[in-house]
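Q: I'm writing up a methods section and want to include an example of the input and output format. Could you take the sequence below and give the corresponding predicted structure tokens, formatted cleanly so I can copy it straight into the document?
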Amino acid sequence: MTTIFDIPGTNAPNPFFEPINAFLDSTNPTSAPKPDETAGAVVSTITDFSDPAHALWQLWDAFFTAVVTSPTSNDRLLALLNSFRTQPPTQPSNVRAGSNAERQLRSYTEGDGSLHWPKLPRFSAQWRDVHDILEQWRDWDGVRASGEDNSTTASTLSSSGDKHYLHFCTFSAVVLNATKGKGEVHPIRVFYACHDVLERTGPEDRQPKAHRMSSEEVWALDVRVAATWVREGGRELWNTDREELSREWAAALEEKTDLWPREDGLMRERWQLWEERLRTLSVEERFDGETRKVLAEAAEVVAGLLAET
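A: Here is the clean output for your methods example:
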């Protein structure tokens, strides 16, 4: 669940939009809020909240909204995320005993009843929800209509669905790289990107729809996203324990695709296929220059991994 696509003004104010945006928007380094200061203030607010589980949802909703709307702020967003991880455990004290809020909170606290911030409570579950929603709506042009016949435009987002999805996946790949595959974004995301895109021959046929991108445009987006995952997180997937991958994702690893009609899981030849596909796509003129650049860089990452063994 996310409010990223909601019409502005239709939801109750989120208390974390302001501190996160203030942290990102400051242009003066000397007066800019420090990440530890922002994280500390946010943590205090959540700890004192009467419904901390809902406050956690609001925090990550505000954070992911910033991710998709501030694509040049990845470094600062990553710094803020790291500052959340350094916060000491906090124990909510304003939750009414026996309330629904108390029951919800148990999903995010440890045995001592505290929120342990190095684990970024609720982040991973909400990341998955937001990713899946953005992926589903990645072909949307940004026009939000009202009325049963969708004929009256009520709001237009500043960015279309493809931009939101690209920005979200780019930041997520950066997080994967920064945490060396041991954080909140698992390296299996790299495999899924390659499986779903690089192992396809091209765009899927689809009927044109109002406010929806063409199949070629969606294909270009998916190729760019897949290359970004490989460029930023290819090494993390390469270094992930093969037994862990087989134990948790055997069905996906063994699923046949257009270009990998085998059930051999993740083996060297499959990486070679990915490198070949990345290089082939990197010279296709139907993609823009930035997409071709990312494809070429991703191919070099895979080539480097293959050269190590």
